[in-house]
Write a structure and sequence with these properties.
This protein is mainly beta. It has one helix at about 45-50, and strands spanning about 10-20, 25-40, 60-65, 75, 80-90, 100-105.
Length: about 110
C-alpha cells in the first residue's frame, strides 16, 4: 500500500538521440506510457534547503516503484505542460511503502 495519493495522470517520454539537421542534433522523445502520480508543489523551505534558493514551478512527485522512469525522461501533464526531472530519481524501499521520488521543474518551452 503506497503512502501517497495518486492525484495526477502523467505521460512519461524517454529521450532518444535524433539525427542532425542544419541547426544541430534533433532530440526525439517517445511515449513510454501513462502512469498515476502524486504531485505536490515544493515548499519554499524545501526549495531553499535543496537548491539554496527559492525556485518557482518546482514540484515533488511520488510514483509506484515499478514505474520505469529515468532522469533523462520528460514528464508531461496534459493541459499543464512538460516538466524536466531535476537530479536523480530516488528509489525508496521501505517494505510496504516502496516508491520513487522525483523533483520536477516546469519547462518554459514545451518539448513535446
Amino acid at each position: 500500500m503506497p503512502a501517497f495519493f495518486n492525484n495526477t495522470l502523467i505521460q512519461l517520454y524517454s529521450f532518444e538521440e535524433g539525427e542532425y539537421d542544419d541547426y544541430g542534433r534533433k532530440n526525439n522523445y517517445s511515449l513510454k506510457g501513462e502512469y498515476s502520480a502524486d504531485i505536490q508543489p515544493l515548499s519554499p523551505q524545501s526549495s531553499q534547503q535543496i537548491f539554496g534558493k527559492i525556485l518557482q514551478d518546482t514540484y515533488k512527485m511520488y510514483l509506484n516503484s515499478n514505474v520505469p522512469i529515468e532522469d533523462t525522461d520528460i514528464v508531461k501533464i496534459p493541459g499543464e505542460g512538460t516538466f524536466e526531472i531535476f537530479g536523480s530519481v530516488e528509489t525508496w524501499n521501505h517494505g510496504l511503502i516502496n516508491h520513487k521520488k522525483v523533483t520536477l521543474q516546469k519547462q518554459r518551452k514545451e518539448l513535446i
